[in-house]
């Protein structure tokens, strides 16, 4: 009986630990005076003050991740509307300290091949996007693309608009009988 009870406790503890990987470690908000991360663009017609960003840290499968969510603030209703959500991979297994002190700490984050740097200045639920070129260089990250957007929060486009060709290939029916379009040939 005692062995069964210990086995049950061990299984319950193991499943509880395994289930914790989807629990967030901590969440932070980006203040309105900080630039947006490079992977986000302002929705059309919106200014920087019309949007907010939330970041949540997770540790999963022996790597650290951050989920970033871009929200459009609603002026006519309380709350906000999520516009975009992305997953970022953090460099290393702990925050980076550049000086001998505990603060600020930095996180190098990669989202779909785009790299940006998060700064935590104090023990508060706020994070900032780094704008200091020297910090980028000390962390081994090229500052050019990230800092081009930070001067006045202007949005760079998401690339050229390319129209798809109007002519689409003919559909084929996957049966032993030919399609009606093929019978007229």
List the SSEs and their pairings.
Elements: H1 2-19, E1 26-30, E2 51-60, E3 63-73, E4 80-90, E5 105-111, E6 114-120, E7 128-129, H2 133-138, H3 144-148, H4 180-183
Antiparallel strand pairs: 1-2, 2-3, 3-4, 4-5, 5-6, 6-7
Order of helices and strands: HEEEEEEEHHH
Compute the average pLDDT.
76
- State the total count of DSSP E strands: 7
Strand content: 25-35%
Shape: globular
**The biggest beta sheet, please?**
7 strands, antiparallel
Structural class: alpha+beta
Name the assembly state.
single chain
Main sheet strand line-up: 1-2-3-4-5-6-7
* Rg computed from alpha carbons, rounded to a whole number of angstroms: 24 Å
Poorly predicted regions:
150-185
What is the first-to-last residue Cα distance? 79 Å
Could you explain how this protein is built, in words?
This protein is an alpha+beta fold and 185 residues long. The chain has a domain of 129 residues. It is built from 4 helices and 7 strands; from the N terminus they run αβββββββααα. Strands 1-2-3-4-5-6-7 form a 7-stranded antiparallel beta sheet, with no helix packed on it. It starts with a helix and ends with a helix. The C terminus is likely disordered.
Task: Name the features.
single chain; 185 residues; alpha+beta; 7 strands; globular; disordered C terminus
Summarize the structure.
It is built from four helices and seven strands; from the N terminus they run αβββββββααα. The chain has 185 residues and is an alpha+beta fold. A seven-stranded antiparallel sheet has the order 1-2-3-4-5-6-7, with no helix packed on it.
């Amino acid at each position: 009986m005692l062995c069964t009870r210990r086995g049950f406790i061990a299984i319950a503890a193991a499943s509880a630990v395994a289930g914790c990987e989807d629990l967030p470690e901590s969440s932070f908000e980006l203040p309105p005076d900080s630039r947006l991360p490079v992977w986000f663009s302002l929705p059309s017609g919106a200014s920087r003050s019309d949007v907010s960003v939330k970041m949540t840290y997770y540790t999963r499968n022996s790597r650290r991740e951050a989920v970033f969510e871009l929200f459009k603030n609603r002026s006519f209703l309380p709350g906000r509307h999520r516009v975009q959500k992305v997953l970022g991979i953090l460099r290393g297994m702990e925050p980076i300290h550049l000086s001998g002190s505990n603060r600020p700490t930095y996180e190098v984050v990669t989202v779909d091949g785009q790299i940006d740097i998060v700064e935590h200045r104090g023990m508060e639920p706020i994070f900032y996007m780094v704008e200091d070129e020297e910090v980028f260089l000390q962390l081994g990250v090229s500052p050019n693309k990230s800092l081009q957007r930070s001067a006045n929060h202007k949005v760079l486009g998401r690339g050229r608009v390319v129209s798809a060709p109007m002519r689409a290939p003919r559909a084929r029916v996957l049966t032993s009988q030919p399609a009606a379009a093929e019978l007229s040939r």
